[in-house]
Amino acid sequence: MFKQSSKRPRTLNDLTVLSALDDDPEILRAEMSCGHAVTPQSLTAWCRSLLDQGQYKFMCPALKDGTTQKCNAEWQYVEVRRLAVLTQEEQRHFEEAMAVLAAAVYCEHKTCPGCQTFVERAELTNLCVMCTICTAEKGKTFHFCWQCRREWKGPGPRSDRCDNIGCINTDVDKLSKCCDITLPAVNNLSCPSMRACPTCGNLVEHDTTGCKNIICNRCNVEFCFVCLKITKVCLQTSSHFIPCSGGLAPRQTSIPSWNRR
Q1: Which of 77, 145, 171, 217 is the most buried (most CB within 10 A)?
Q2: Is 228 left (phi over 0), alpha (psi -120 to 50) or beta?
Q3: Is 227 exposed, middle or buried (0-12, 13-18, 19+ CB in 10 A)?
């Protein structure tokens, strides 16, 4: 519901997208379910920025009254769609982006090279995957390689590669070839510029600013970019701005499997 009041409502205050539009008391604002108010334009911009960061849940960034703590109440999409007054194009973009991001969180899927339908892998350590649709259509069992996405060659199951030429794990290849970076705030410590999240295997990079810890944009788990331990474990014997007691973790040679079940 949109309203205009002489009493300034509690507006959202994330300065990156929600500043100028919410400063004018004459502009109509939508009151969200959490009690904070925002203009439709700012609401659209904030939610779009979350999608661009890989977040499919819309959380209120406003500060709780009299505190420095964020509200973080979740806004349901139906509420955002109604109060942000999305155009058909914006609505389609939001829903497609949300579907892709949510699918990446809740299941691991790839397209079958035979029929192009999405297939979910049941065994996370087995690269040899059967497509039920191709098997039914061809009248014989059809397996493809989860890694190179070609029809499977060689014995299986296997967790490293199939016998197709050039079957490599591109993520592991990126980890082995990435350059080193220096973390100025952590005693100029040098480490690889790219890491695989120890929880879900998502590849992330450090922008070299701030402390050594980073939050994965897929599983939202915070971990140490230096020792690759979950932050709360690392901080038991270290701090945000000093080298880890266990030393620098070497370049990763495998991708952690994310067991979400």
Answers
A1: 145
A2: left
A3: buried
Is the CB of residue 115 less than 8 Å from the CB of residue 131?
A: yes
- DSSP class per residue in 58-114: EE--PBPTTSS-B--PEEPHHHHHHHTT--HHHHHHHHHHHHHHHHHHH--EEE-TT
pLDDT digits (tens, 9 = 90+) for 93-138: 999 988 878 776 666 778 899 999 888 887 878 999 999 999 999 9
pTM over 0.85: no
Characterise 73 by phi-psi region: left (phi > 0), alpha (psi -120 to 50), beta (else).
Answer: beta
Residue type, 205: E
Q: What is the pLDDT of residues 195-220, one digit of tens each?
A: 999 998 889 999 999 999 999 987 88
Determine the straight-line distance between the first and last CA of the chain, rounded to whole angstroms: 39
Please give the Cα distance from 46 to 24 (Å, whole number): 18
Distance CA 211, CA 4 (A): 43
Query: What is the SS3 assignment for 141?
Result: coil
Distance CA 159, CA 213 (A): 30
